[in-house]
Design a protein that fits this description.
Strand content: 5-15%
Structural class: alpha+beta
CATH superfamily of the largest domain: MetI-like
Strand order of the largest sheet: 2-3-7-6-5
Number of helices: 16
CATH topology of the largest domain: MetI-like fold
CATH architecture of the largest domain: Orthogonal Bundle
Length: about 375
């Protein structure tokens, strides 16, 4: 009877629905990540013309190029000739060409066509061209022509080479570590002390103060940036130090992280068996001894879980770092530097795909190193050991 009920549970619609939703969630995260990874090895033209799912097949692209200027002409067999190369990528092959966008697909490569000025032009499949005329060329700018090319699948490390070895990125990496490590440790320490006080210490107004701290979670980050910066500037002017410094950004991240950290750690610590705390008090242990020798070791899963969240947030932060550090070369962090590498209008989006995987390495190592405690922290409260 029990076996039959167990089999019925395993095949229940609720369990099947749960598995189906999990598969959908995994696919929804995996495919965009795979697309970013494949795109990080492609050029800007390939990304803009075809999707990453077609990266293994040849693609057709229309391009606008210019021929050589008049000072490149040579007199050969009584004709003026301008020749050169139009393609830098040897894996690209010209299919059609012409001087008008309306009909350039009608002219095959490696054939001469007559242009409007009675000159003749031939563009070969490899991108080399020969432009001839009975009269001397006198144009100032190179003539504009349209070509249709067949691009073979091409993957390279050019994007990663640009991101990794561009000027200032190594310094930005060290600056990011300088910001992230203290901005992760400081709020965890402060929140751990505060959470212990809210859980196991009796003092007037404890519940009301905890409600006020939790209420700070609903305060928008953007609304508090400028008042906080004004406060730091006033303190910096009084102490004759710059407000845009590492201590300023550490305190800013600490202030924004403390409400959530206190809320999560307090909910975990309050679940520690009361008998353990009372036994320590009977033995004469002080609050600091109970906190450091009992509560902290037992709360390690919760501490590690919040450490992962805080590290990821600070590592990927752009807004707070710009406001409290600025964009000076000696203090710029990786997110700000990568934004600068993308260009003024964000047109270099191929850099974004490569930089996404460059910046993900350190957070991924942190997550894998603390994964065991992270899982324990997630299930805390549902199952007691």
């Amino acid at each position: 009877m029990m076996t039959r009920l167990k089999g019925l549970y395993l095949a229940s619609p609720l369990r099947l629905l749960t598995h189906f939703l999990l598969i959908i969630l995994v696919v929804a995260w995996t495919f965009p990540t795979l697309g970013l990874f494949v795109s990080s090895f492609r050029s800007a033209d390939e990304i803009s013309s075809t999707g990453w799912w077609s990266s293994l097949s040849s693609s057709s692209q229309n391009k606008r190029v210019r021929l050589g200027e008049a000072n490149l002409q040579e007199l050969i067999d009584g004709k003026y000739v301008i020749s050169g190369e139009l393609l830098s990528n040897k894996s690209t092959k010209v299919i059609n060409f012409g001087d008008s966008f309306n009909n350039f697909l009608d002219n095959k490569a490696s054939t001469f066509i007559k242009l409007k000025d009675s000159s003749e032009l031939m563009i070969n499949e490899n991108g080399s061209y020969r432009w001839t005329s009975e009269n001397s060329f006198s144009h100032k700018n190179g003539k504009r022509v349209f070509i249709n090319v067949l691009v073979e699948p091409n993957f390279s490390f050019d994007n990663y080479d640009y991101v990794l070895f561009s000027e200032g990125l190594g310094k930005a990496f060290l600056n990011t570590l300088t910001v992230t490590i203290p901005a992760t440790i400081i709020p965890i320490l402060l929140a751990a002390f505060a959470s212990y006080a809210f859980s196991w210490m009796d003092f007037p107004g404890r519940k009301m103060l905890f409600i006020v701290i939790v209420g700070l979670l609903v305060v928008p980050l953007q609304m508090s940036l400028i008042p906080l910066l004004s406060l730091y500037s006033s303190i910096g002017a009084f102490l004759n130090i710059s407000a845009k410094s590492y201590p300023g950004v550490w305190l800013a991240h600490t202030a924004f992280a403390l409400p959530l950290a206190i809320y999560l750690l307090r909910n975990y610590m309050v679940g520690i068996p009361k008998e353990i705390i009372e036994s320590a008090r009977v033995e004469g242990a002080s609050h600091f001894q109970i906190f450091s020798q009992l509560v902290l070791p037992l709360s390690l899963p919760a501490l590690a879980s919040f450490a992962i969240f805080q590290f990821l947030w600070v590592w990927n932060d752009l807004l707070v770092s710009i406001v409290f550090l600025g964009s000076s070369s000696d203090q710029v962090v990786m997110t700000t530097k990568l934004r600068q590498l993308m260009g003024t209008y964000g047109g270099d989006y191929q850099i974004l795909t490569a930089s996404a995987f460059v910046t993900i390495i350190v957070p991924l190592l942190v997550f894998l190193g603390l994964q065991k405690y992270f899982v324990k922290g997630l299930v805390a409260g549902s199952v007691k050991e």
